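User: Hey, quick favor. My workstation is busy. Could you predict this chain's structure for me?
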Amino acid sequence: MKIYTVLTGGTIACSVRNGIITADEKTPRAIEMYTKKYGDETEFHVIRLLNILSENMAPEHWEIIANHILSAGLSGYDGIMILHGSDTLSYSSALLGIALSSLNIPVVLTASDLVPDDPESNAAANIRAAVLCIERFKKGVFTVYKNRKDSFCSVYLSTRIVEADRVFGNFTSFDGKPFAYAENGRLELSGTVPESKINCNTGYMHDLPLVFKNRVLMLRQYPGIDLSDISLSDNVSTVLMVTYHSSSASTLGNESALELLHRCTKCGKEFFLASFDRHKTNIYETSDILLKNGASPLLHISNEAAYAKLLIRANLPEDRREKFLEKNCFFEYI
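Assistant: No problem, here it is.
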């Protein structure tokens, strides 16, 4: 088996030399350790595309990753593995899950909690799970990660993985459980999405190159937030307001979400709310006020996937935007 391996930075592509954590120059230590541990005959064709801390990941870096893969000419490869940092892993997963969903080979993103040389590192286990995914699936975009204290490695649909918590560093899935579990050299599906749907997914291939000229401003509600201080720069075409769990947001005062919505309307910027429950027949008065004043709801979608979806949409030709918003590119809508 032959895997096209893209390095973007992060702990998983680093090693410790003389007490200093540094990026591996050639074959990542994690892959060397994986091969030694599992005796696998997999061939990893390694490309160092980026070398940044993942907290510095930005849309211009997603342009580089997605456009490189979409134009690389990958005939002869069984799959693609992207080594990434953990901080923004869920965001890159969502964006690339949508952008690469039409590829005819599987794509797997992964990271590690500690440098591969650390005996407690999950790097080798994560690469093992990535290899199992590439062996198993004909296509699709996945993210794999072994959480602390788990005996298994979780396999997530890349558009459903949710940012890790800040204490234990554990990832979760927006729909409640991972798509599959990898343990003892086997993959066991959880039943969230049938495997047949993964292999038959047609995805959405948009025009090359991806250029994120128009940006999305993502904001999160919390008590006392003063949205009157938010500057709507010219390159922001869309505002995404992450609501409270009941799909509500503030509507009282000049600092409220409602006032920001009015400002967006005046300067021609779109305003979205995420996420709404499509099964609920009743909504709160505050939600109703925002919707009646022009806010657009996104249904059953994670914060990361909503941001990625709107970012891609904002840079599509205008006549393709609504159709794209409605399309479930890679299971981002639950």
